[in-house]
Amino acid sequence: MSVDIDTVKRVARLARIAVDEEDASRMTGELNAILGFVEQLNEVDVTGVEPMTSVIPTTMKMRVDEVTDGSKAEDIVANAPQTEEHFFLVPKVVE
Q: What S-S linkages are listed for this chain?
């Protein structure tokens, strides 16, 4: 895949970034170099390689999944202007 100057300008416009002709031309080369590197990475055979999230083997700390009410209902609604039975009262928006 290669990027042309029109694609760079279109992406810049979508991202709301001001890019002049000189910058667009420079970015075209840079983006093509990046995409070339990604294509090289796609050629690497990773068959049998487990995906990893860290270079050091780690395990996530697990906790018991217990359903609770949080025991903080009073604290949560303490600063609300209007409440009823631990619920926020808000003005009706839709008729």
A: none
Q: Report the alpha-carbon distance of residue 41 to residue 44 in Å, rounded.
A: 6
Task: For the domain covering 5-42, report its CATH number.
Answer: 1.10.20
Tens of pLDDT, residues 49-72: 888 888 888 888 888 888 887 788
Q: What phi and psi, each to the nearest 5 degrees, are found at residue 83?
A: -140, 160
Q: Token digits for 25? A: 């031309």
CB atoms within 10 A of CB 45: 6
pTM more than 0.70: no
Closest by CA position to 74, among listed 60, 87, 63, 61: 87
